[in-house]
Amino acid sequence: MSHGTLQNGATSNGTRIGQNATETVHLLFVGAPLLDISVKCDEETRRYYGLKSDDCILSRKEHDELFQQIFHNPESHLAAGGSAQNAARIAKWKLGPRGEVAFAGSTGCDDYETWMRSKLCADGVVPLYVKLPNDSTGLCACLLSEEGERSMIARQGAAALFLTEHLRTDLIRPYVGKSNCIFVEGYFIVHSPGVIFSFAEHRASSQIFSISLSAEYVCRSHCAALMKVIPKVDVLFGNEAEVRALAEAICKKDNLTVQECVKLIHCIQISEAVESRIFVVTRGSKPLIVAQGTEEHQTFTIDPVENVVDSVGCGDALAGAFLADYVTSRNISSAVKAGIEAATKILQVAGCDPPH
């Protein structure tokens, strides 16, 4: 692996990863924290707030009352969501007492932040929330009809306002310095690009730097920015649709096979800080693809899953568990197995709650 990694897990700064059972590893996840709220809702309420079936809208001022109502509704399902926050919670579940996992993001100063903070602590994750007093905590409300149709309302709020200077605060700086692995969700390319660029340029030589592609629109509309970051990335995650979107944005062609897309992206030049990039491509129930170095792409079979509830957070779970395993084992097959296991468990529950 990169970062001056020596034989048997020794790194250039003298730290040995995954060899001493008593050693604690440190992972830092950075992203937009969102309080996810799911609740059944009658048709009258949906009409009152102008909501349509199978639609997702950005919230307006009149939705604040709705957010409060469903937040306090005892029948609502609440979750500390957002891509990186999901991954952090799964990483801690995978590591257990062997590792410390922290999550950094920005929130408001409100009841939503208080609930998410308590949830992270309960899951064993260190909450590094930068609280912005003039903004509200990010939310995503999912209103379910009796027929199972969804109406979604999203409010990014403070979650989209995380800045590079927040990395230098007394709250977050120590965790940046001691982390063996840093993961940033790709959505930051859209609203907080300086944060990703800062990690890409200034992370320590002994640290693993990882990002996700996050969404098709990120890949299509922000291809140039991604092309500046990917050369400095050690572990890159994306699903098949995202990988195809980025490859088509790079070469201005469509109708590429997934293998061609993976090869095109994996051949992006790497910086001197990266010895051999790992590219993990999820494809739902189809075999997962891993590209590393100049070797042939590896594929890993996904066993059929019974009792599927929903796929929310499966990609996040895979990334979190993969990194948690890889930072200790430095073994790709072991990390993939851990990632698939975590994603399978999340498929069988509502949302992205770690198993207990």
UniProtKB/TrEMBL annotation:
Family the UniProt entry places it in: Belongs to the carbohydrate kinase PfkB family.
Gene3D superfamilies: 3.30.1110.10, 3.40.1190.20
Annotated compartments: Nucleus
Protein name: Adenosine kinase
InterPro entries on file: Adenokinase (IPR001805), PfkB_dom (IPR011611), Ribokinase-like (IPR029056)
Oligomer status and interactors: Monomer.
Function comment: ATP dependent phosphorylation of adenosine and other related nucleoside analogs to monophosphate derivatives.
GO BP terms, alphabetized: AMP salvage; purine nucleobase metabolic process; purine ribonucleoside salvage
Record: active site: D316 (proton acceptor)
Cofactor: Mg(2+)
Record-listed E.C. numbers: 2.7.1.20
Ranges of residues in domain Carbohydrate kinase PfkB: 49-353
The UniProt record lists the keyword Nucleotide-binding: yes
One CC-aspect GO term: nucleus
Upper lineage: Eukaryota, Metazoa, Ecdysozoa, Arthropoda, Chelicerata
Catalytic reaction annotation: adenosine + ATP = AMP + ADP + H(+)
The UniProt record lists the keyword Phosphoprotein: no
Cofactor, free-text remark: Binds 3 Mg(2+) ions per subunit.
EC class (word): transferase
Keywords of the record: ATP-binding, Kinase, Magnesium, Nucleotide-binding, Nucleus, Purine salvage, Transferase
UniProt pathway: Purine metabolism; AMP biosynthesis via salvage pathway; AMP from adenosine: step 1/1
Molecular-function GO term, any one: adenosine kinase activity
